[in-house]
Design goal:
The protein is mainly alpha-helical and 206 residues long. The protein has two domains: 19-50; 54-198, Nitrile Hydratase, Chain A. It contains eleven helices and four strands. Helix 3 (55-67) crosses helix 4 (69-77) and helix 8 (132-140) packs across helix 9 (142-148). Bound molecules: fe (iii) ion. Fe (iii) ion is lined by residues 111, 113-116.
């Protein structure tokens, strides 16, 4: 039920729970009943990956790098420490490398083996990142993949593909778009979306 004054539309408001929701609920009840999960720990985990961990963290890192040359230098030299210093740490963020897009180089991140991904700065990976097609084609034909994502690179731009593993996870530092000199770090962060930090999109000034 919605509390009073909470009047915006919810897609499933008052509708019967979907089959998948019922199955998830039954599974959750069973895990709790068997003592396999702790409710508070589960709520904490859901809250973490719903509200506190996501691409907004990576966007804050990128915006700071764009506006603070000392921070950018540190980020490129020791990404793990520079990212941890902003409070973004945790599972799948233990060992980080940041790769910078320039006029000459465009970086693209993949995990060819599975779905290694920097959770503390990007959240959980999108389905396409985990697909066998992306995992294979990002390596074999990165320019074609980039074109399908709408990224057209000049022929003389070198494409570098980074294969994330359990030992090292990569974050792309995208190019700062022209015409954004007057923007604050928080306004810049709002321009930086998840895909730009995987390397399958470019940051556009609004
Ligand atoms: Fe992996």
């Amino acid at each position: 039920m919605s509390p009073p004054g909470h009047d915006h539309e919810h897609p499933h408001h008052d509708a019967a729970p979907s089959d998948i929701e019922q199955r998830v609920k039954r599974l959750e009840d069973l895990l709790i009943e068997k003592g396999l999960v702790d409710v508070a720990a589960m709520d904490e985990l859901v809250d973490t990956y719903t509200h506190r961990v996501g691409p907004q963290n990576g966007a804050a890192v990128v915006a700071r790098a764009w506006t603070d040359p000392d921070y950018k230098a540190w980020l490129l030299e020791d990404a793990t420490a520079a990212i941890h210093s902003m409070g973004y740490a945790g599972r799948q963020g233990e060992h980080m490398t940041v790769v910078e897009n320039t006029d000459e180089v465009h970086n693209l991140v993949v995990c060819t083996l599975c779905s290694c991904y920097p959770w503390p700065v990007l959240g959980l990976p999108p389905a396409w990142y985990k697909s066998s097609e992306y995992r294979a084609r990002a390596v074999s034909e990165p320019r074609a993949v980039l074109e399908e994502f709408g990224v057209a690179l000049a022929p003389d731009v070198e494409v570098r593909v980074w294969d994330s593993t359990a030992e090292m996870r990569y974050l792309v530092l995208p190019r700062r778009p022209a015409g954004t000199d007057d923007l604050s770090a928080s306004a810049l962060a709002a321009l930086v979306h998840r895909d730009t930090m995987i390397g399958v999109a470019l940051v556009e000034a609004h």
